[in-house]
Amino acid sequence: MPSSEIRIVDTLAGVQDARDAWKTLWHATEGATTFQHPDYAAAVLTTMTGDVAPAILLAFADGKLQAVWPLQIVRSRGVRHVLHLHNGSREEYADPLFAADADDGVVARMFSAAKRLGDVLELYNLASEGRIWAHLPSDRPSLRALRSDMACLTVQFATAGSWEAWLAGKSKSFRQGLRYDRKRLSAKGTLAFVAPTSADTRAEQIRWTMANKYRWVLDHDIAGSWLAEASATAFFETLVTSEDGIGATFGLRLDDTLIASCLCLIGKRDLEFFLTTYDEAWAAYSPGNLLVEEVVRWCFERRLNFDMRFPVMDYKRRWSDHARTCHGYLLATTLRGTPFLWAKHAARMRSGLKRRAKAVVTHLRARRKGAGQGSA
C-alpha cells in the first residue's frame, strides 16, 4: 500500500522549496491555471498584508507530489474562513491542482484537510469537471452549505484557421465599429499597441493601471475594493517578473501617452484578462475595445484562448464565442461556522423575495395600465 502524507506550507521559503516538484506537476496537468502555479503563490506571499495565514496543502504519495491546494485562512468576527490563496480580488479560478494519476483517496484526503483548517470553507469559481466536485454536497438544500453559479465568457479560437477568418465571422456592424473607432483615434496621433518587456516600463504601466482603475472604483462608489491596498500593485509587479512569465501587461499609446491598459495572466492554453482600464478622456473613441482587439489578435498568434473572466458584461458578450459556468460553495465545517451560513441563506432569501415582489408589482402595473387603455 503506497505511503501518503499531506503537508502544510505557510511560508515563502516553503513555496520555494516545493517549487520544482510543484512546477513539474503544473506543467504535466491538463487544464492547470495560473492561479495554481507556484509563482502565483510566491507573489501572493511576497506581498501579503493583514491578518491572513497561508495554508498551502501538498499531498504526496510515495514521496511524489500528487496535489496542491493553495489556501489561506482569514479570521473575521471569531470565525476562521478558509479560501483560495489570492491577492485580494477573489476572482481567481480556485480549483485544487491534482496529478492525472492521483486517486480518489488523494482527493478525499485533501478535501478533509481543507475542512479541518477552519470553520467555513469558501470555494468559488470551480470548474464542473474539477476533481473536487464529487466531494461537494449535492444540490439538495442544506443550512450548512450554499451553492452559487457564475458565467464566464471566453474567445476560444486556438484551433481557428486564421485571425482574419475568425474576425470575419463577427457581425458587420461589429467589424465596422472597430475600423471606425480606430480611424478616428488614429487621426489624433500615432496609435500603437504595446507589450512592454523592460522592468521599469512594466512597473510604470502597472502603477498607472492600478491608479486609474481605483479612480474608476471611487467614481462608482464601490466600497471595500482590493485596489485600495498598496499590496495590489506590489503583487502584480512581482508577478510579471516571475521566472515562468505568467504575468503580462498590454496597452494602447497615443503618441507617448498611455490611454488604455490591461494586466493579464498567461497560462498553458489561455490568457486571462485580469484587470483593464482606460483614460476616460478618450472614452468616445472606445480605446478599451480597441485594446481588446489587439490582445485577442496577440492571443490568436500564439494559439491561446482569451478568457475575459468575471463578471459578464455587454462588451464581453460582443467578443466572446463561448460561455461556461463556474460554481461556488460555502461550507460550514464547524458549529462556529454555521451561523455565518445561516446569515448567507437569509440574505439570499431576502434578495429573492425582493426580486419576486418587484416582478409582481411590475406585472400588476402593466395589467392596470392595460385595463385603463381598454376602457378608454
Which key terms come to mind for this protein?
single chain; 376 residues; alpha+beta; 13-stranded mixed beta sheet
User: What's the helix-strand series?
Assistant: EHHEEEEHEEHHEHHEEEHEHEH
**How would you characterize the largest beta sheet?**
13 strands, mixed
* Mean pLDDT level: 90
What proportion strand?
25-35%
* Number of separate helices: 10
User: What gyration radius follows from the Cα positions, in whole Å?
Assistant: 23 Å
Taking pLDDT < 50 over at least 5 consecutive residues as the criterion, the unreliable ranges are none
Instruction: Name the shape in a single word.
Output: globular
Quickly give the structural class.
Answer: alpha+beta
**Helical amount:** 40-55%
User: What is the straight-line distance between the termini?
Assistant: 85 Å
Question: How many DSSP-defined strands?
Answer: 13
Descriptive overview:
- A hairpin with a 3-residue loop joins strand 10 and strand 11.
- The chain is an alpha+beta fold and 376 residues long.
- Strands 1, 2, 3, 4, 5, 6, 7, 8, 9, 10, 11, 12 and 13 form a 13-stranded mixed sheet that branches.
- Helix 1 (12-28) runs antiparallel to helix 2 and helix 6 (199-219) runs antiparallel to helix 7.
- The longest helix is centred in the C-terminal third of the chain and has 38 residues, at 338-375.
- It contains ten helices and 13 strands.
- It starts with a strand and ends with a helix.
- The chain is 40% helix and 27% strand.
Give a summary of the structure in a few sentences.
The chain is an alpha+beta fold. The protein has helices at residues 12-28, 38-47, 104-116, 163-168, 172-186, 199-219, 230-239, 287-301, 314-319, 338-375; strands spanning 4-9, 52-61, 64-76, 79-84, 97-98, 120-127, 145-155, 191-194, 247-254, 257-266, 270-278, 305-309, 322-332.
